[in-house]
Amino acid sequence: MIAANIQWIDSISSIIFLLYSIFINCQTQFIMALSTPASQFIFFGLGAITGYFLANRQCRQLTKDLDTLNAILIEKENEIERLEQHVERLLEGYKANDIFVPSPDNTDNLTAIDGIGPKIQELLHTHNILSFEQLATTSLDTLNKILNSAGSTYSLHDPSSWPIQARLITEEGKAALKNWIKEHKSS
Q1: Which residues, listed in sequence order, are joined to residue 100 by a DSSP beta bridge?
Q2: Are the C-beta atoms of 135 and 159 separated by less than 8 Å?
Q3: pLDDT tens digits for 83-101?
Q4: DSSP notation for 66-127
Q5: Could you tell me the pTM of the whole model?
């Protein structure tokens, strides 16, 4: 059995040597074939044709990608236009200098409150305090921050009674507010 295995291994090694010899011989002939000008021209032509087809394929893929990106760009431009229109609709209530112009139906004349003049009313409107009700529920801290953010001229005002006055006018009317102002100015 061992003799058969040795014979089998011997046969395989002979086959491997034969294949190796053929490979070396073919490789040598291939290299020699490349050295002739005709074969070099053929291989150059094959390379050029292969390059052309690869470039053409890549160009088609890039064209598809460009078309996809153009479609996305158009979609985004439409979305931007829609958002710009939405912003324009939101800003319709604002003057050119970004001061909110309240509609007459949901605002009160805040200058009826002692200590609030037209400029402070305008400032309160920019912070979306448009009615006596809103002023009545605004904290003193918020009012001070609004005044301080507008500068030193505004920060000199004392808003501590503004919510009280606004609540009074909302609950009892303008006559009650006038009486309250008279009482507190005289004291």
Answers
A1: 94
A2: no
A3: 887 777 666 654 444 444 4
A4: HHHHHHHHHHHHHHHHHHHHHHHHHHTTB-TTS-B---GGG---GGGSTT--HHHHHHHHHT
A5: 0.44
HEC per residue, 150-185: CCHHHHCCCCCCHHHHHHHHHHHCHHHHHHHHHHHH
Packing angle, helices 37-91 and 2-34, rounded to 10: 80
Give Cβ neighbours of residue 109 (< 8 Å, ≥ 6 apart): 121
The residues facing 94 across adjacent strands are 100
Residue 162 CB partners (closer than 8 Å, separation 6+): 113, 115, 116, 135, 138, 143
User: In the structure encoding, which two tokens stand for residue 68, read together?
Assistant: 């996809």
What are the extents of the domains in the chain?
2-89, 104-186
